[in-house]
Specification:
heterodimer; A: mainly alpha; Hypothetical protein af1432; 16 helices; 68% helix; 0% strand; B: alpha/beta; Metallo-beta-lactamase, Chain A; 7-stranded mixed beta sheet; 24% helix
Chain lengths: 290, 307
């Protein structure tokens, strides 16, 4: 990838807005003077960009904590409702300013459904394999953020990105390879750039970077990354949203068994995953005029 | 070191006959090291008189070199800066350090905004002293070989720091504006939005952060702590405002082995007579609770404490 393209990518990442689909609701919630921590948590948890920005704020900007914060609940308590509210507002407003150019190549609704779907599925897997409930949120966040690298790609190189999606659609190869061919960088690499800029580390970082190849994950975070890997393919197979990958491959048996899950289990919880996405979608329909 | 209060009031300056004893200026604390080096915490309206004294006395010996730490950028903590005379005098050096909130604004931008045309007749560019700005994170560092500074994030509706200064064999700590961290995800299973996982996690996060503040104030020779409200006031309507109930502060100070506790950031509505009255109650309470004898009192303008 040439220097000027990298500059464009970096510039986009530096002022990345919330997803257009969540913006109205974020504005509605955050403009409410009586907003509660629960309201904020609910709306922020539906936007990968905003979640990333909150984690960035709590981890890099101020805290000297030895262990990075991976949970939204903890971030809200540490930074306070007011600070989080202002961050949400400023991230949403950034998006409002450039509404017109939102997601030319990737359908934003499909992308959002896919992100939420993978998050919800990964959290279900965590529950099934006995991950303690306070850590399950990390599975949701890993799933929610895993494809974040696609946002700057889709926004900065819209024509080429559309081409990559079309090539992949025509069966010329995995989207990852088509991204490399048409743009010269993959969404996993761009995701890594975002994560590094935002000081997102640990398991969430590995989900963003290795969700197409969990074998590269560290031993410590392998189960988390593999759960997101499985959730991602499962959502692609079942067309939960659309994130550019229509031809999902089969999930390797050894990965399923290393996590401790079966495809049958996933089929069983498919309904509940769909219904969670629908609930979130209804929630985002703004009830009152701005 | 010597600590002197130049402003102890919260929110807004409150001159008038009812605030003569404790003072009406907003927050400013002078920390004078044994060798004369000057550290200042906050630039509320109290910094104006401190500036006049520095010019009249210290500048006889030459230009000033000042380390100014800002707890946070709410107005009552920076509103005296444009009236701090040393900033207008060439060769003075003033290093301003503190946290900024989210967004792209720097500490310098925020300070200079109040010296823009609409708010003040002189522009920041016209200040003759050398002023540098540094945004701080939560950290611990040697300000000088013999002066250690630790910053800790407190609970206030903006990023806000307490400062722990270890020098001259003494520990001086500020912890305002601050209220105890609490679980914002509390609730009962009957609530529509009840989420047990969030509740448990919130519990953990609040207690972790309160423990960190406890460690931060631990064994301070002097702790200056937010005590804007009584517990009754706090519980009835002031939760979430970023200020502490004094009963809680006293208990926390005793538990952390603090020697002297200056209750600080008095509510602007609080009269001298009320502060006198509440102080008596606080002292009685302190005497009852501890045999170690924590010395708790309300900070007042002009009070100087040697550590």
């Amino acid at each position: 990838m040439d220097e000027s393209s990298l500059v464009r990518l970096n510039r986009y990442i530096d002022s990345m807005p919330a997803l257009s689909i969540t913006i109205s609701k974020i504005l509605e919630v955050a403009k409410n003077p009586a907003v509660t921590a629960k309201d904020l948590n609910k709306v922020i948890s539906l936007d990968p960009v905003l979640v990333g920005k909150v984690l960035r704020l709590v981890n890099s900007a101020y805290y000297g904590l030895a262990n990075k914060v991976t949970s939204l609940v903890t971030a809200i308590i540490m930074l306070g409702i007011n600070t989080i509210k202002n961050l949400a507002l400023s991230t949403a407003v950034l998006g409002n300013m450039r509404k017109k150019q939102s997601f030319k190549s990737l359908n934003v609704d499909g992308f959002w459904r896919h992100s939420i779907g993978v998050g919800v599925t990964a959290r279900q897997i965590a529950g099934k394999i006995g991950i303690p409930s306070n850590i399950r949120e990390e599975y949701f966040i890993g799933g929610l953020l895993h494809d974040m690298g696609k946002i700057p790609l889709s926004e900065t190189f819209d024509e080429n990105y559309l081409k990559a999606i079309q090539l992949s659609d025509l069966g010329k190869g995995q989207l990852l390879d088509m991204e490399n061919e048409t743009i010269g960088i993959t969404h996993c690499e761009v995701g890594r750039m975002i994560a590094e800029k935002w000081n997102i580390t640990g398991g969430t970082y590995e989900c963003i970077r290795f969700h197409h190849d969990p074998n590269q994950a560290s031993e410590q975070h392998y189960k988390l990354v593999a759960a997101v890997y499985i959730a991602n393919i499962f959502c692609n197979q079942n067309q939960v949203g659309f994130s550019g990958d229509r031809h999902a491959k089969k999930i390797e048996d050894y990965i399923l068994s290393s996590v401790g899950i079966t495809e049958e289990y996933l089929d069983d919880v498919f309904e509940s995953i769909s219904s969670e996405i629908e609930k979130a979608s209804v929630f985002l329909q703004v009830s009152t005029a701005q | 070191m010597k600590v002197r209060f130049w402003g102890v009031r919260g929110s807004i300056p409150t001159p008038g006959p009812d605030t003569v004893k404790y003072g009406g200026n907003t927050t400013c604390i002078e920390v004078r090291l044994n060798d004369g080096r000057i550290i200042i915490i906050d630039a509320g309206s109290g910094i104006r008189e401190l500036g006049n004294k520095l010019v009249a006395e210290d500048m006889k010996k030459g230009p000033l070199s000042i380390d100014l730490f800002i707890s946070h950028t709410h107005w009552d903590h920076i509103n005296g800066f444009p009236f701090f005379t040393p900033i207008f005098i060439p060769k003075n050096k003033i290093r301003v350090r503190g946290p900024v909130n989210i967004g792209d604004e720097s500490l310098k931008d925020i300070f200079e905004l109040q010296m823009s045309y609409n708010y003040f007749p002189l522009r920041a560019a016209e200040l003759a002293a050398t002023i540098t700005y540094e945004t701080l994170k939560e950290t611990s560092f040697q300000l000088y070989d013999d002066v250690k500074i630790t910053t800790r994030i407190l609970n206030h509706p903006i990023i806000d720091f307490g400062y722990r200064i270890e020098a001259d064999g003494a520990v001086f700590v500020t912890a305002y504006d601050h209220e105890p961290f609490r679980n914002l995800f509390d609730g009962s299973p009957e609530d529509d939005d009840y989420d047990e996982t969030a509740k448990l996690e919130g519990e953990k996060a609040a207690s972790l952060n309160n423990r960190r503040v406890h460690g931060f104030i631990h064994r301070a020779d002097l702790l200056v702590h937010d005590a804007q409200y009584t517990n009754k006031e706090y519980v009835s309507s002031k939760k979430g405002w970023g200020h502490s109930p004094m009963e809680h502060v006293l208990a926390g100070g005793i538990k952390a082995g603090v020697k002297r506790l200056a209750l600080f950031h008095h509510d602007p509505t609080r009269k001298d007579t009320e502060l006198d009255q509440i102080e008596r109650a606080v002292k009685n309470r302190a005497a009852k609770v501890t045999s170690r004898g924590i010395d708790a009192f309300f900070a007042r303008e002009g009070l100087e404490i040697e550590l």
